[in-house]
Amino acid sequence: PQLHFNRDSVMLLVLLFLSLTSALDPTSNNALYQCGVRRRIGVQLIERGWVAELGQWPWHAALFHVSSNGSSSYACGGTLLDQRHVLTSAHCVTTKRRKNIVPIRGSRLMIHLGQYDLREITGVQLRNVSEVHIHEEYSTNRNDIAVLVLSSDVEYSDFVIPICLDNRVDPDLTKLVGQRGSVAGWGLTENQTVAQLLRTAQMPVVSHVECVQADPTLFGRYLDRGMFCAGERNGTSVCNGDSGGGFYISEGDRWVLRGVVSFSGVDETRQCDTAQYAGFANVHNYLGWIKDVTGSRGGTDDKLDIPRRRSEIECEKYKELAGKRGNGICLNSRQPHNVALIYENSWGVCSGALISDEFILTACSCMKRMKPVSARIGQFVTIKIAKTLCHPQHEDFVNDVALIKLESKVEFAASVIPACLANDWTENLYDTLLLTGFKEDYRVYEDVPGFGKRPKITELVESVDNLIITEAECRNRTEAMGRTDRITDSQLCVYSPGHEILHAYDSNGLAGGALQTYNSRTCIYSILGICADSYTAQSVTIYSRIARFLDWIEPIVWAVDDPTESEDEDGTPPEYEGNELSLGSSTEDTCTYKFDPNQLTPTGPIRKNTVVVDTSEFKDISIAEFRKLFEELRLNLSAVKSV
């Protein structure tokens, strides 16, 4: 007899099959869920602190503190990033020991996922915490962010879904002002009692100015460039117990994590003031750090991967060189990348920064009158200069960056280690901004091989109390000195309050010097800017913003991974031009393919005897990786007829 199926019975069989396969392999469920996309249909947005709906915020986590007797108590919120990581506030997972801030042991922490009612754990996924990562520059309400590593993977469901991290959001917080986001938590209610059911509220982002004016004592002290402010001042706010939870913004059909609840004001009873604004850690500023800690490509949505730049990959190698002793002290000396540029038959010195074993980053203005002939790296290494390259669009103090190639490669040591280059995602990680450079001491002369007697180049001068200021504030400070040009997106304006640091340099010593941050965890410096112009009377310095010049720097500094790989198998050298990397002609007929960077599937026009790959979305591809890709293509093309 024949079997007949109608549409409903076919669908029933499909659902039955999916249920059976999911039961056999629970991890297969994970493929059915996308970050930031809720599966509970009909959930309404609820304002003014009402009870949330079941499944409304499937990425919201509950953080419990576990006592020595095994009992646990609710402490903070958190946000699920992927199957193994939860983001929360650093103050939720730290304690003080002998006046030092230290992480709470993972064994004293527990994460609940899919929780709605604090009194009920049926269906809730409970996970121990195996690792606690606190931002290395966390201090009271600054860099208040932490990543928790779970003891085992969670299983995605309608009630447990990760949030999206989006590297494409505009980093300019002024454009976020007025936008409404959502928060959730089991914090204290307006009656100062702990909420048993998950509650939620909507609130707008407000400007720094409005926030500080509302409470100058609180926000004037703690609200820095790594944070933003939000709230209604009408009772709709976060409270004790909401810390660590997320600030979610809707982007069409998905939700993105934009902030982490950090702090709010208190009223006269020392309880949280729900009529006051709240401070949130700006997640966008920490995407690079989150990626480093989680080992992921910046979130849970493959389409939102943070591209790994070539300079980032090289930076990993430098971290291995820096290292730490067993006592936690960095092995490298202070500023092991700083360079003094020396001119022939002329006094004066410019600064620069070593960024690879044969390239120095400096300012083009250092070559305006004459070109330097050698570079002093550290205290004992001096190498002649082979070539200087100014940015092709350099004009006066605009695009004022340059590369110097050395005649011989540098041997790395504790006193000679390159610096990393900050990009859009890493330049805002750390509060401490270091301003460095060299100067000549005209009271002391020394013999320099090949140069005779000249003023001694003194030890490095360093300033740590520096602030990046807005274009308007910068203009107010520099107009009196005759500067009328606006600060562009490719520049940073730095103010050094209360310091006469700029007067410690001669007219050249500060030029080309690096504005940098220091990572005490990896012992590595990252360069944010190169000094282009300074106004000593106003303690203001203009820097070229390095993140905006990486597309020019990287192909020059790291053009070829390995000299042995500089030629293709048929002897034709690879050619690099713009974002297109091509290999020479093959002896066989092959097709030209251009790749969709996300899908890596062949598309586009066809041509004989060459393969071209558009690398615009993965700039860090190496010759070795390209060759492997090329060989895979050759196999795939074997069945394609030439045209």
UniProtKB/TrEMBL annotation:
<comment type="similarity">
    <text>Belongs to the peptidase S1 family. CLIP subfamily.</text>
</comment>
<dbReference type="Pfam" id="PF00089">
    <property type="entry name" value="Trypsin"/>
</dbReference>
<dbReference type="GO" id="GO:0004252">
    <property type="term" value="F:serine-type endopeptidase activity"/>
</dbReference>
<dbReference type="InterPro" id="IPR043504">
    <property type="entry name" value="Peptidase_S1_PA_chymotrypsin"/>
</dbReference>
<dbReference type="InterPro" id="IPR009003">
    <property type="entry name" value="Peptidase_S1_PA"/>
</dbReference>
<keyword id="KW-1015">Disulfide bond</keyword>
<feature type="domain" description="Peptidase S1">
    <location>
        <begin position="46"/>
        <end position="295"/>
    </location>
</feature>
<keyword id="KW-0378">Hydrolase</keyword>
<feature type="domain" description="Peptidase S1">
    <location>
        <begin position="321"/>
        <end position="558"/>
    </location>
</feature>
<dbReference type="InterPro" id="IPR051333">
    <property type="entry name" value="CLIP_Serine_Protease"/>
</dbReference>
<feature type="compositionally biased region" description="Acidic residues">
    <location>
        <begin position="563"/>
        <end position="572"/>
    </location>
</feature>
<keyword id="KW-0732">Signal</keyword>
<dbReference type="GO" id="GO:0006508">
    <property type="term" value="P:proteolysis"/>
</dbReference>
<keyword id="KW-0645">Protease</keyword>
<protein>
    <submittedName>
        <fullName>Limulus clotting factor C</fullName>
    </submittedName>
</protein>
<dbReference type="InterPro" id="IPR001314">
    <property type="entry name" value="Peptidase_S1A"/>
</dbReference>
<feature type="signal peptide">
    <location>
        <begin position="1"/>
        <end position="23"/>
    </location>
</feature>
<keyword id="KW-0720">Serine protease</keyword>
<dbReference type="GO" id="GO:0005576">
    <property type="term" value="C:extracellular region"/>
</dbReference>
<feature type="region of interest" description="Disordered">
    <location>
        <begin position="563"/>
        <end position="587"/>
    </location>
</feature>
<keyword id="KW-0865">Zymogen</keyword>
<keyword id="KW-0964">Secreted</keyword>
<dbReference type="InterPro" id="IPR001254">
    <property type="entry name" value="Trypsin_dom"/>
</dbReference>
